[in-house]
Amino acid sequence: KMDDDDIPQLSSHTLAALQEFYLEQQQREGMRTSQGFNQYSIGSIEEDWQLSQFWYSDETAAHLANEAVVAAGKGGRIACVSAPSVYQKLKERDDEDFSVCILEYDRRFSVYGEEFIFYDYNHPLNLPENLLPHSFDIVIADPPYLSEECLQKTAETIKYLTKGKILLCTGAIMEEHAAKHLGVKICKFIPKHSRNLANEFRCYVNYASGLD
Questions:
Q1: What are 57-76's pLDDT values in tens digits?
Q2: How many structural domains compose the chain?
Q3: Mean pLDDT throughout 137-165?
Q4: How far is CA 60 from CA 31, 119, 131, 187, 209, in A?
Q5: CA geometry: angle at 115 spanning 114 and 117, to 5°?
Q6: How far apart are CA 60 and CA 63, in angstroms?
Q7: I want to staple 32 with a disulfide (CB 3.0 to 4.6 A). Which of 5, 22, 37, 179 is the partner?
Q8: Gyration radius of the chain's alpha carbons
């Protein structure tokens, strides 16, 4: 029979810290529901590094959302492919005349209802039938991995969705692949992330944008 002493015990200090952590979490959850929590605000869904998610800084997300709205035009349709922080910024501007969809692997985004489309870049054209080809005025995409394979597959999705305009965010090292697969060129605007990434990130477009 195992002796009680053999069972690893948490120190009282660790235990107290853990309880405090859970308490804070409960309070945060409670606050969210009581304040009529805005589900669209950035941070309402935390980034998940295991899914290779890295949110943009607030300014970058706002800047890219603004660019998308201008590029899409009045009544325009915007698709965000693996770019949820831009999507959340667009949702904060709900008084304007445009519509938006989010294509995302992370099913937590299904809270956004019909605007959420489950998306796995490994199956780039496995899309719902009601998502018609070339039905978006602009597609903003941020492929989850810095690999040519990931970019090439995401590019199939982008080309299927867009009427023409493409705004791609990916590493600076992907410049040649971005030109090859999507015909996009690097912009002056440098996107920033809420946590600094080791890789230099850039924006690429194939139209006259406000990002230069």
A1: 889 999 999 999 999 999 99
A2: 1
A3: 96
A4: 27, 23, 28, 14, 15
A5: 90
A6: 5
A7: 37
A8: 20
